[in-house]
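Quick review question:
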């Protein structure tokens, strides 16, 4: 148990839990209940009509601490729940956050959070709410900040029930709830449990109380035992070294020339430091010697591994081949392909040539100018055509309106044309006849207009075809293989795979003797490849050649003793070892001899230090062992204390239980309180019973067989209050959901007197559905200087929606 100071409930946040739905309006989807009045912590009395969620608030606090959901079992045990037990809307997040604050203003927040719910499965009696994650925040709860850190991997770590109990300073949070939360349901009452359940609760209570006093000694004993165990291991190791006879004279210091140029083997150096791990170097050098002496066996295994790896990367053959080409060729290909795509898009249809942007990077200057001109002609023609058609249409519509009314018009305008003033007599006509003959003029105008337009359209179409042909000719000059282009574009993305494939292919071809294959050699050198292959378009054909070479490689199996560690440490040097000159094995053997000499020299220098270290460790071990013996004696007292505590547990409970039950049950038979008795055998509790009446403790008839349901409820409150009185809790909160439902007015007054006088420092969380009882409680508590706030659930939570 980590904490020594008391913690209280500071704030409660509830979202999408039971009746408290997810709030879509605004930026806060949750309900918030503040257990403070100004800057002072207060006890809380929840009031309001039934059905508005008073009990759900208690259940939210319980769920935040425990994370379990209680369900009922169907009789046939085959039916299934088709709704979630907690979550209101399965598609919305659901959470309960308990913000606790200590007397020194330290804050810790417990959050039970589910992103969304699932439909219930087969009903179980009680189970963990697996959809929910539990987090512990060492800070006040701010929803926006919580969401930010929750969505970033690794920032929030879930905690276990055990970790949560330790953080709150309690041995077991479930046992704490049994002693500090009285529910409305009678089946959960302590006195309604079987005798075995009562005994287990008292055992847990006893262990918790003893744990508070003896845990520091147990922790110290474990630390001493761990330290002694570590010292024993170190002493044994030193004794082993000291017992070894290390010859001081080693002869002359050997020369340490490298056997391989460059940074190949980490154990192959020209100069060594005393801190070097010589024994590790010797083991690695010996395994390299085995590799060299059985090179054919290990090379064969390496070839099989390379061949398998290369075949697995067949999808990258084209990228590998493209990477062998000169980068400028690849750049030319991609430029050509992009130009081809642009040109094809330009002549996709007639609108494309007229509307798509003119990119002078991809178009010859003359062709770009031709396209620009034909666009101008097209636009000008369209504007002229639109204007002429508009005029013609107006004239035609006017003629249609006057047609058939020639004589009327002649009379209106006195047989003279209103436009030119002529009466047409010189032409042997009249105004009506001239108007009638105008129809021919309209048709002639239409024929002339259509003829002019057709001529212009033919000219523009001819210019369009010429430009399109020019674009087609330019497009045919460019590359158009989309697969090759995309492979080139993906080279950077697959650079790691291509580089690995390049290394593996080069090693495979060389080690398998394929260098004699004139085709294979082109895939081991960029220079050789570029002298052979010039056209990027041939990449598919070249890839087929490479595949044929790879598929044609046959590797015969080799027999012999194979060591996996030897292989993995040295396989990257297979090609280098195969190329090495004769005598490599002898050089490695010489290096092993040098390393052994240096290792013995290091041991000789450490010998004197080891003897002093042994003496020091032995002295520490002796001190630790003596400390452990003292702690054993202290902890042995725990068993004696446990026996005495269990023998007297009924005595500790007897007085407060008798007083509280007598005050709360003033209407019971004989107005007597309740007494309790226990059975104990072999230092273990065997029973816990309570009696009442004139023959208290004699007949030993348990009150669960005698009292009514209401009396049992009151007796349960009295017992839990008695336990609370003698127990010590770091989480100093006491909750009763509607304690007055089984009490009459006189009992209620007694209950209030007990709570305000006996538990003045404890944070109380109570509920009632009667406003007058709430007002009475608040008045009595405040008269006793105990701050109590009435929280009307209907008004405070639902009126804001």
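Suggested answer, residue by residue:
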């Amino acid at each position: 148990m980590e904490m020594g100071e008391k913690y209280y409930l500071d704030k409660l946040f509830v979202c999408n839990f039971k009746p408290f739905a997810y709030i879509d309006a605004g930026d806060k989807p949750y309900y918030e209940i503040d257990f403070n009045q100004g800057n002072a912590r207060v006890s809380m009395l929840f009031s309001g009509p039934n059905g508005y969620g008073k009990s759900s608030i208690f259940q939210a606090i319980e769920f935040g601490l425990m994370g379990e959901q209680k369900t009922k079992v169907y009789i046939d045990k085959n039916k299934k729940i088709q709704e979630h037990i907690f979550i209101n809307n399965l598609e919305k997040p659901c959470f309960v956050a308990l913000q606790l604050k200590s007397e020194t203003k330290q804050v810790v927040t417990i959050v039970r959070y589910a992103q969304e719910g699932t439909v219930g499965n087969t009903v179980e009696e009680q189970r963990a709410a697996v959809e929910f994650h539990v987090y512990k925040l060492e800070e006040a709860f701010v929803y926006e900040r919580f969401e930010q850190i929750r969505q970033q991997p690794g920032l929030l770590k879930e905690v276990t029930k055990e970790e949560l109990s330790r953080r709150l300073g309690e041995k077991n949070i479930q046992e704490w709830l049994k002693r500090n939360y009285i529910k409305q349901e009678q089946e959960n009452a302590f006195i309604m449990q079987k005798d075995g359940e009562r005994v287990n609760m008292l055992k847990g209570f006893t262990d918790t109380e003893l744990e508070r006093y003896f845990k520091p000694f147990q922790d110290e004993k474990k630390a001493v035992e761990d330290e002694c165990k570590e010292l024993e291991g170190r002493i044994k190791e030193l004794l082993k070294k000291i017992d070894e006879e290390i010859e001081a004279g080693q002869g002359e210091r050997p020369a340490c020339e490298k056997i391989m140029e460059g940074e190949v083997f980490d154990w192959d150096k020209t100069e060594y430091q005393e801190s070097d791990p010589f024994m590790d170097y010797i083991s690695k050098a010996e395994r390299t010697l085995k590799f060299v002496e059985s090179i054919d066996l290990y090379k064969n295994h390496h070839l099989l591994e390379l061949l398998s790896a290369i075949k697995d990367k067949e999808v990258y053959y084209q990228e590998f081949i493209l990477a062998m080409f000169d980068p400028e060729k690849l750049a030319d290909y991609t430029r050509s392909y992009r130009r081809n795509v642009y040109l094809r898009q330009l002549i996709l249809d007639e609108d494309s040539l007229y509307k798509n942007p003119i990119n002078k990077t991809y178009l010859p200057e003359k062709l770009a100018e031709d396209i620009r001109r034909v666009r101008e002609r097209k636009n000008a023609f369209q504007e002229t055509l639109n204007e002429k058609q508009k005029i013609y249409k107006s004239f035609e519509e006017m003629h249609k309106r006057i047609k058939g009314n020639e004589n009327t018009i002649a009379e209106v305008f006195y047989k003279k044309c209103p436009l030119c003033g002529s009466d047409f007599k010189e032409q042997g006509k009249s105004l009506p006849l001239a108007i009638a003959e105008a129809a021919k003029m309209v048709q002639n105008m239409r024929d002339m207009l259509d003829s002019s337009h057709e001529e212009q359209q033919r000219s523009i179409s001819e210019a369009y075809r010429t430009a399109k042909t020019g674009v087609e000719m330019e497009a045919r000059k460019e590359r158009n293989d989309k697969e090759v282009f995309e492979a080139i574009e993906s080279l950077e993305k697959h650079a790691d795979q291509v580089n690995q494939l390049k290394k593996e292919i080069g090693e495979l071809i060389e080690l398998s003797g394929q260098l004699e294959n004139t085709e294979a050699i082109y895939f081991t050198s960029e220079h050789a490849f570029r002298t052979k292959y010039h056209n990027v378009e041939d990449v598919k054909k070249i890839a087929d050649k490479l595949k044929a070479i790879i598929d044609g490689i046959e590797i015969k199996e080799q027999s012999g003793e194979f060591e996996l560690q030897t292989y993995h440490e040295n396989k990257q040097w297979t090609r280098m070892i195969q190329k090495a000159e004769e005598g490599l094995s002898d050089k490695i053997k010489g290096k092993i001899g040098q390393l052994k000499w240096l290792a013995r020299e290091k041991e000789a220098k450490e010998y004197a230090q080891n003897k002093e270290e042994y003496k020091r460790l032995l002295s520490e071990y002796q001190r630790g062992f003596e400390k452990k013996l003292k702690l054993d004696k202290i902890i042995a007292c725990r068993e004696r204390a446990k026996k005495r505590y269990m023998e007297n547990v009924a005595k500790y409970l007897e007085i407060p239980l008798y007083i509280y039950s007598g005050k709360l049950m003033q209407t019971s038979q004989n107005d007597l309180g309740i007494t309790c008795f226990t059975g104990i055998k072999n230092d273990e509790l065997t029973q816990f019973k309570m009696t009442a009446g004139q023959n208290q403790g004699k007949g030993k008839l348990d009150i669960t067989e005698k009292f009514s349901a209401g009396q049992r409820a009151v007796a349960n409150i009295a017992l839990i209050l008695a336990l609370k009185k003698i127990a010590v809790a770091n989480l100093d909160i006491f909750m009763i959901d509607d304690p007055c439902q089984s009490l009459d007015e006189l009992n209620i007054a007694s209950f209030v007197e007990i709570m305000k006088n006996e538990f003045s420092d404890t944070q109380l969380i109570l509920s009632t559905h009667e406003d007058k009882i709430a007002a009475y409680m608040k008045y009595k508590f405040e008269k006793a200087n105990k701050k109590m706030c009435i929280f009307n659930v209907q008004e405070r939570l639902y009126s804001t929606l």
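Why it works: The CA atoms of residues 108 and 138 lie 5 Å apart. The mean pLDDT is 80.
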